[in-house]
Amino acid sequence: MDLFRRMRQQREVNQRLEEIRPRLYRVAYSWCHDPHLADDLVQQTLVKALQNSGQLRDAKVMDAWMFRILTNCWNDHFRRQRDTVDIDDVPQWHERTPEVEHGRDQIVARVRQAIAALPDHHRYVITLVDLGGLSYNEVAEVLDIPLGTLMSRVSRARRSLKESLLDLQPETARHTAQIRRIK
Q1: Are 161 and 116 in contact (CB under 8 A)?
Q2: What is the spatial distance between Cα 110 and Cα 150, in angstroms, rounded to a whole number?
Q3: pTM above 0.85, yes or no
Q4: What torsion, rounded to 10 degrees, do the Cα atoms 94, 99, 103, 106 define?
Q5: Which of 38, 52, 55, 145 has the greatest count of CB atoms below 10 A from its CB?
Q6: Is residue 182 within 8 Å of 130, Cβ to Cβ?
Q7: CA angle, corner 139, sides to 122 and 123, nearest 5?
Q8: What is the C-alpha to C-alpha distance for residues 61 and 180, in angstroms, rounded to an integer?
Q9: Beta carbons of 98 and 106 less than 8 angstroms apart
Q10: Number of Cβ atoms within 10 Å of the Cβ of 42
Q11: What CA–CA distances, in Å, run from 47 to 29, 56, 69, 155, 166?
């Protein structure tokens, strides 16, 4: 008897699926306006419904259950169809290319060498003023020297750096910002 009851239930489910199929198609078509996609969505809905028919406990809510499956299939379609860009269509220009970065690294290394080559008293003032951002008064206080001496040392240190880095001027203008003076 159990076998006959299951066969009868399966026939009823198949009949209900055939009845609801045109309604599912109309709704899917109204969403996508593409007959082939609508047909695919309905097909996916029917396959999922048959695979998960054991989850349906009340046959009265079968229509709502089927339309929920259709909605999920529609949402899945959108997840799969997210806008993608072919990597070959993306312009490969960027400001920070390896060549530019290498050039900047070379400039930084040259500036560091030039600063390291300065006499200690010039290196101290230039790093405290230009790199440390301290005011002239603060640097004079830190180094315990008169303000005029500090100013002349900063001037001489900058002039010495400029002379030793003169060959980098076109590249520094292109790759780095101007040195700012902090007083």
Answers
A1: no
A2: 25
A3: no
A4: 130
A5: 38
A6: yes
A7: 20
A8: 75
A9: no
A10: 23
A11: 18, 14, 10, 82, 75
Rg (CA), the chain: 38
Tell me how far apart the alpha carbons of residues 61 and 48 are, in angstroms, rounded to a whole number. Answer: 16
Burial class, 161, CB count within 10 angstroms (exposed 0-12 / middle 13-18 / buried 19+): buried
pLDDT by residue (tens digit) across 35-54? 999 999 999 999 998 888 77
Degrees to nearest 5, angle at CA 113 with 107 and 115: 105
**Whole-number Å distance between alpha carbons of 83 and 96:** 27
177 pLDDT band, cuts 50/70/90, is very low
- State how far the Cα of 102 lies from the Cα of 114, in Å rounded to an integer: 18
Give the model confidence (pLDDT) of 100-153 as tens digits.
888 889 988 998 899 999 998 898 899 888 888 889 998 898 889 999 999 999
User: d(Cα 110, Cα 183) in Å, to the nearest integer?
Assistant: 25
CB neighbourhood size of 119 (10 A): 11
Q: 153, 123 in Cβ contact below 8 A?
A: no
pLDDT at 169: 61
pLDDT digits (tens, 9 = 90+) for 57-98: 777 788 888 899 999 999 999 888 777 777 777 776 667 778
Query: Which two tokens mark 59?
Result: 């046959």
